[in-house]
Amino acid sequence: MTDISKDQVRHVAHLARLAITDDEVDTMTKQLGDIIHYAELLNELDTTGVEPTTHVLDLKNVMRKDEPRKWIDREDALNNATDHQNNQFKVPTIL
Amino acid sequence: MSVFDYTLEELQQKLHNKELTVTDLVQASYDQIDAVDDQVKAFITLNKEAALKQAAQLDQEIDQNNHPLFGIPAGIKDNIVTKGLRTTCASQLLSNFDNPLYDATVMERLNKKNVITIGKLNMDEFAMGSTTENSSYFDTRNPWNTDYVPGGSSGGSAASVAAGEVFFSLGSDTGGSIRQPASFCGVVGLKPTYGLVSRFGLVAFASSLDQIGPLTRTVEDNAYVLNVIAGHDKMDSTSANVDVPNYHDALKKGVEGLKIAVPREYLSSQEGIQPEVREKVEAAIEVFKSLGATVEEVSLPHSKYAVAAYYLLASSEASANLARFDGIRYGKRTDHAENMIDVFKNTRSEGFGDEVKRRIMLGTFALSSGYYDAYYKKAQQVRTLIKQDFDKVFENYDIIVGPTSPTPAYKVGEKIDDPLLMYADDVLTIPVNLAGVPGMSLPCGFSDDEGLPIGLQIIAKHFDEQMIYRAAYAYEQATEHHKKRPVMGGAK
């Protein structure tokens, strides 16, 4: 049985880009642990040689021609952003 | 009698006979919303001005149109993108997403038939939940008794139809989110075969499971709506390129000679099926028999593993899909960030509710290095076994029948603090999503003490929605449950 530690919870939160408080770490450690223990019910089943299902329909890659077409205007695209400048989305300094 | 007692066919007749105008219907919707939505709380955003304007226009065109959806007021779940109309997914993160730039394909199709969008419906945030209590705005209540939950995640979609606020609605179903609220609110809800209805413009939760479907008062109305929204869409690469039949044509074929399978797991007290629910479903099975169908017990032996597999798979897909919400291009960005990583982290932590965070965390964990094979891949293998269970039954049977949910609606607050207890609610609906087959919930009775609706689930093989409609219509015509309405105040 896998237990999940507080450090693991902090690590996963970082990977998921979530800021979590110490209280949330405590709650999350317990809740995730419970859910993961429950999920280990699946280990009752021998799945050796069973193909995983990623998708229920037998679809192959769907390709389309790479052709330009009219979609949305730049002005509209920027309109829903909190911050933009010179026709670009604006974010804090990265480098 | 209220206009909401009419079927879509009857409404078209009345529009053409000039007994009613489209404006009357739209006004009736908003009057009922004014009268009851402070109790039901189904709507997050209303579209009143535009809807009335559209109605006035359509009233000029009625003589040139005879489509059953012409001028019909509908509600849309708030995870379906509507051009120029706020789309929030019931999340704070999208509370300022006032001006979506395009319409979902289902909206384009409804708009082409002149359906009128009355407003956007409440839901569990990003469709994660079974009660609509995970909405970051407010709880929606069950119109049959407002102390009770309407189910979820399409709680607003089911409650608005049950309360007579709209003539139909669209919901989305990833693990039961159309069928379970339809069951709790006593309406007809269909989750189509995966790939039948385009997901373009549906805000993605779990892309291999999500489907949009209609919630209606009657089986016939449901078929009319599916006729419009089903079909291949080049904007959704997982959309199935199959011929779409006229579902209405299937309704009156009857069930004589049909072979119906009843999975013993679906009536078992081990899965928490309440005796009362079992009783109503068994009574429904007797109705099918009396109409000439043969009924046999079968087994879906991997049913008990479905919930565990589902929460690993759906959460994994959600953790990837919800990575797009970063506060940069749209959505509410945090005010507290000095650097880029903090923009992401604080935007997401301030914008997402607890259940959404929990599932993102679970999914990120299941996909992370060292755990992928043990959890994610294992769950995908179990999904194969569950799908094979259904394939095997459908070799010999036309439909599968059972309850939609183990219980009728329960009280607001009863399960919200225990995620695992809440997840177990979906035990009878989740296998259908994992297998990708279509499933419908329709009313089959009411609980004895509280008079709350109980839902019958009908499942068919891939792309055999016609068979579902056929069986559901025969059952509905032989019974009276769909004629009962919740007693609420409001417009008559």
TrEMBL record, chain A:
Enzyme Commission number(s) of this protein: 6.3.5.-
UniProt source species: Streptohalobacillus salinus
Record NCBIfam families: gatC
Role this protein plays: Allows the formation of correctly charged Asn-tRNA(Asn) or Gln-tRNA(Gln) through the transamidation of misacylated Asp-tRNA(Asn) or Glu-tRNA(Gln) in organisms which lack either or both of asparaginyl-tRNA or glutaminyl-tRNA synthetases. The reaction takes place in the presence of glutamine and ATP through an activated phospho-Asp-tRNA(Asn) or phospho-Glu-tRNA(Gln).
Name of the molecule in the record: Aspartyl/glutamyl-tRNA(Asn/Gln) amidotransferase subunit C
Keywords: ATP-binding, Ligase, Nucleotide-binding, Protein biosynthesis, Transferase
Subunit structure: Heterotrimer of A, B and C subunits.
PANTHER family: GLUTAMYL-TRNA(GLN) AMIDOTRANSFERASE SUBUNIT C, MITOCHONDRIAL (PTHR15004)
Family affiliation: Belongs to the GatC family.
Enzyme class of the recorded protein, top EC level: ligase
Gene Ontology MF term list: asparaginyl-tRNA synthase (glutamine-hydrolyzing) activity; ATP binding; glutaminyl-tRNA synthase (glutamine-hydrolyzing) activity; transferase activity
Domain of life: Bacteria
GO BP: any one term: glutaminyl-tRNAGln biosynthesis via transamidation
Pfam families noted in UniProt: GatC (PF02686)
Catalytic activity: L-glutamyl-tRNA(Gln) + L-glutamine + ATP + H2O = L-glutaminyl-tRNA(Gln) + L-glutamate + ADP + phosphate + H(+); L-aspartyl-tRNA(Asn) + L-glutamine + ATP + H2O = L-asparaginyl-tRNA(Asn) + L-glutamate + ADP + phosphate + 2 H(+)
From TrEMBL, chain B:
Known catalytic reactions: L-glutamyl-tRNA(Gln) + L-glutamine + ATP + H2O = L-glutaminyl-tRNA(Gln) + L-glutamate + ADP + phosphate + H(+)
SUPFAM superfamilies per UniProt: Amidase signature (AS) enzymes
GO biological process terms on file: translation
GO cellular component labels: glutamyl-tRNA(Gln) amidotransferase complex
Keywords: ATP-binding, Ligase, Nucleotide-binding, Protein biosynthesis, Transferase
Active site annotation, chain numbering: 77, 153, 177
Biological role stated in the UniProt entry: Allows the formation of correctly charged Gln-tRNA(Gln) through the transamidation of misacylated Glu-tRNA(Gln) in organisms which lack glutaminyl-tRNA synthetase. The reaction takes place in the presence of glutamine and ATP through an activated gamma-phospho-Glu-tRNA(Gln).
Assembly and binders: Heterotrimer of A, B and C subunits.
Family label: Belongs to the amidase family. GatA subfamily.
Protein name: Glutamyl-tRNA(Gln) amidotransferase subunit A
Species per Swiss-Prot/TrEMBL record: Streptohalobacillus salinus
